[in-house]
Design brief:
The protein contains three helices and eight strands, in the order H-E-E-E-H-H-E-E-E-E-E. The two termini are 38 Å apart. The protein has an eight-stranded antiparallel barrel. The protein has 225 residues and is of the alpha+beta class.
């Protein structure tokens, strides 16, 4: 619930800010060619924090996000983003809600005990392409919608405490993600982003398999011209 509320507040504030600037700048004619547009390749880096939501167990895990890549501008409104993205997801007591939701027969209790007091981490690495379109721009500020696809892999390492004994479990999988986002750019080089990734394909059957869920992150991005 908290994650959804944060997403709604971010989107609302982005478009409210854009609308306010547009009202304040009505007397300024927006040039046919945006003054801040640069037609050469630019490098960028993003750093953020968010979460992995898995609807199968109705839980959210902490996610740290890092992205580095380059931008190929096409016009004053359109840009192509190519990046290498890294997500590190911390999985803490991820079986708790699954245990609470299970019944009380012997087989279910024994299964539930395998997930008690568990934890671990998942590392996602992917190559991404995103299409960027500026839905609003003015001098010193613009709002850009992002959408694209990512291809990569996932490594998952779990520590399980099953009936008093510790066990380790490793999962490796292939990832195919769909990406969506919104970027608020200030002073041409600085941006605050909201990014969303959801699986089109994940060959893993582990806890970090977020088929039916998503990874979200709030990021600061530096766009170096």
């Amino acid at each position: 619930m908290l994650a959804r509320l944060c997403i709604i507040v971010f989107l609302f504030s982005s478009f409210t800010c854009a609308e306010k600037i547009q009202q304040d700048k009505q007397e300024i004619e927006v040039p046919e060619k945006y003054e801040g547009y640069s037609n050469h390749i630019r490098w960028f880096a993003s750093l953020g924090v968010g979460g992995l939501y898995n609807c199968n167990i109705d839980n959210v895990f902490l996610d740290n996000y890092l992205s580095m890549g380059f931008i190929i501008p096409y016009s004053d409104r359109i840009s192509h983003y190519f990046s290498l993205d890294f997500d590190s997801v911390f999985l803490n007591d991820w079986g708790k809600k699954r245990i609470d939701a299970m019944g009380y027969n012997t087989d279910q209790i024994l299964t539930a005990l395998q997930y008690r007091s568990s934890g671990g981490y998942a590392l996602n690495l992917s190559i991404n392409y995103n299409f960027g379109y500026s839905v609003f721009y003015a001098k010193g500020y613009r709002v850009e919608a992002l959408g694209g696809i990512g291809l990569g892999g996932q490594f998952e390492f779990l520590f399980l405490n099953a009936m008093g004994g510790e066990a380790k479990k490793k999962n490796q999988s292939f990832l195919l993600n769909a990406n969506l986002g919104i970027r608020n750019v200030f002073f041409e080089n600085h941006a605050f982003d909201f990014m969303l990734k959801t699986n089109l394909l994940n060959t893993s059957q582990g806890i970090a398999d977020y088929n039916g869920g998503f990874i979200f992150s709030f990021n600061y991005t530096f766009l170096k011209i």
